[in-house]
Amino acid sequence: MKAILDHKGGVLTTFHQDGSDPEDQFAIHSVQNVSPLIEANKAWSEDFDPKAHFRPVAEIPEVLVGQMMREGWFNDNKKLKQWLNDSDNRAFRIWPGRV
User: Fold this and answer.
1) What's the average model confidence in pLDDT over 30-40?
2) Structural domain harbouring 7
């Protein structure tokens, strides 16, 4: 069995269950097209003003924030800084400096 639970803000959330046994485990699966967010971050970083009062560091996709929360390190500043400074995640960065 598969059913759409929610579809808003570019995030599609679906429910999955085998269905052969009512006590089977189920899964909630979320996917997000991050291409628009990456393009927006790129444009924002090109116009970045280091002297501005408001200097955003990054915009992180909703599905990644959910994963960080499930794994228990979203509120761990050290781990979050490490993730933000990792070159593999640079597409989500707006501010070019180190956090």
Assistant:
1) 91
2) 1-32
Q: What phi, psi does 27 have (nearest 5°)? A: -135, 145
Task: Give the β-pairing of 26-32 and 11-17.
Answer: antiparallel
CA–centroid distance for 14 within its chain: 17
Alpha-carbon Rg of the chain, whole angstroms? 17
The total domain count for the chain is 2
pLDDT in tens, 72-95: 999 999 999 999 999 999 999 998
Give the global pTM.
0.75
**How far apart are the two ends of the chain, measured CA to CA in Å?**
44
Distance of alpha carbon 13 from alpha carbon 4, whole angstroms: 6
Percent of the chain whose pLDDT exceeds 90: 46
